[in-house]
Amino acid sequence: MLNYLLARFGLVRLKDVRDQLNFALTVGKRLDEHREVVEQIEQQTPLFRDAWWHAGHMATQDDYLMRFYYLVHGTWPEDAPTTPTGRQVSGEMVRARPSILGPCRLPEYASKNG
Q1: Which residues lie closer than 8 Å to 112 by C-beta, 6 or more apart?
Q2: Quick one: average pLDDT of 4-14?
Q3: I need a labelling partner for 70 at 20 to 30 A (CA). Which of 6, 14, 78, 97 fits?
Q4: Global pTM exceeds 0.85
Q5: Rounded to 5 degrees, what angle do the CA atoms 38, 43, 45 make?
Q6: Contact 97, 35 (CB under 8 A)
Q7: What are phi and psi of 50, to 5 degrees?
Q8: Strand partners, 82
Q9: Rounded distance, CA 8 to CA 4, Å?
Q10: 81 Cβ partners below 8 Å, 6+ apart?
Q11: Cβ-count burial of 109 within 10 angstroms (0-12 exposed, 13-18 middle, 19+ buried)?
């Protein structure tokens, strides 16, 4: 009933958004797998050398997934608290952003350092 009333005013509960973003395992897993694919493309194909703009498309996709990660966890992947074994407290393990993608260009990410 509460969700129905909120929806009438164009509102949704944050918990519901987080639950929906964690489709097909978790948003952290989606981000990690995207980065794994980028690494494999870079290492095993000439795609990023021959068609450099694809790296830009992949960077935008990474930024998009980082925004979802932030919405779900309230922190950026590299800032997430970790256990002594290096796994994030959330239970996820997100690899570092591949250098071919350059820095994250999200305005809210850039403002965290400035």
Answers
A1: 76
A2: 76
A3: 6
A4: no
A5: 90
A6: yes
A7: -80, -30
A8: 88
A9: 6
A10: 75, 88, 89
A11: middle
If you ran DSSP here, which 8-state letter would residue 86 be given? S
What is the identity of the amino acid at 11?
L
* Domain boundaries defined on the chain: 23-111
Percent of the chain with pLDDT over 70: 93
Give dist(CA 57, CA 78) in Å, integer. Answer: 21
Q: Which two tokens stand for residue 47?
A: 């795609």
Q: How far apart are CA 111 and CA 114, in angstroms?
A: 5
The per-residue pLDDT for range 47-101, each reduced to its tens digit, is 998 998 999 999 999 999 999 898 888 889 888 777 777 677 677 788 999 999 9
The structure tokens 């570092």 sit at 96
CA pair distance 107, 1, nearest whole angstrom: 36
The residue ranges of DSSP E strands in 1-114, in sequence order, are none
| pLDDT top residue among 41 and 110 | 41
CA distances from 90 to 28, 78, 113 (A): 9, 13, 23
